[in-house]
Design brief:
CATH architecture: 3-Layer(aba) Sandwich
Shape: globular
CATH class: Alpha Beta
Number of domains: 1
Order of helices and strands: HHHHEHEHEEHEHHEE
Helix content: 25-40%
Radius of gyration: 16 Å
Oligomer: single chain
Structural class: alpha/beta
Distance between the termini: 33 Å
Strand content: 25-35%
Length: 222
């Protein structure tokens, strides 16, 4: 599938979010105002939610996964969890030790209403060092809809890797315009060269939303 011009079918709030400039304060303000209606704005035709949950499950149940064990005992962190849209498909796959982190207090408040997260942490900026109590805490991190125009820099891959124990997995989506306009590929190569995480698989031009496709990236943390 090809990426369509953003805004053809997307809700105005999605369109405007993609025009943010990555400034922390502007992102916080935008999502403070959007949190109440976020789910109804994005849930239709958000194919990436189910797809990334399935990709994560397949990876964590692979014989190659270094921490292979029952799904209910694996600790997963939903990075940029927003209102918690990923929690439902992950719970359906029996992942129960699910935490969420997000920059926005209001989005975390909506995620808390789902009752599907073990712990939730607001005010976490993945442009900055991860708080010490969260480092090396998880078997896997999943990050959907964060590496997207106007939001985070590719260097945030380093902070996400800090959340994961050696041998664990991080699974990232990138909107195609984001990938094309940033240094994501160079940073992906660099974290490998730096011995931080090794790319296991990339799935290109896969379903994401009806306003465009995405690439999905699966790394093993070293």
């Amino acid at each position: 599938m090809n990426d369509k011009p953003v805004g053809e079918t997307a809700h105005v709030n999605i369109h405007d979010a993609l025009k943010l400039d990555g400034t922390t304060e502007k992102i916080i303000d935008y999502y403070k105002n959007w949190a109440a209606t976020y789910d109804e704005d994005v849930v239709d035709n958000y194919y990436g939610v189910g797809l990334i949950a399935e990709l994560l499950h397949n990876q964590l149940q692979s014989r190659d996964f270094k921490h292979l064990q029952e799904t209910g005992t694996l600790k997963i962190v939903d990075v940029g969890c927003g209102t918690g849209l990923l929690a439902k498909p992950l719970h359906a796959l029996n992942y129960r030790l699910l935490d969420g982190i997000d920059l926005s207090e209001e989005m975390i408040g909506k995620a808390r209403e789902t009752g599907l997260y073990k712990d939730l942490y607001a005010g976490i900026n993945i442009h900055e060092p991860i708080p010490a109590h969260l480092k090396n805490s998880y078997h896997a991190a999943v990050c959907l809809g964060v590496f997207t125009p106007g939001h985070v820099q590719p260097e945030s891959l380093y902070q996400i890797a800090d959340l994961i124990i050696p041998g664990g997995i991080m699974l990232i989506s990138t909107r195609i315009p984001y990938y094309n306009q940033t240094s994501f590929q160079a940073i992906s190569d660099k974290i490998d060269n730096d011995g931080i995480a090794t790319l296991q698989q990339s799935i290109r031009d896969a379903p994401y939303r009806d306003d465009g496709d995405a690439h999905y990236w699966i790394y093993e943390v070293q």
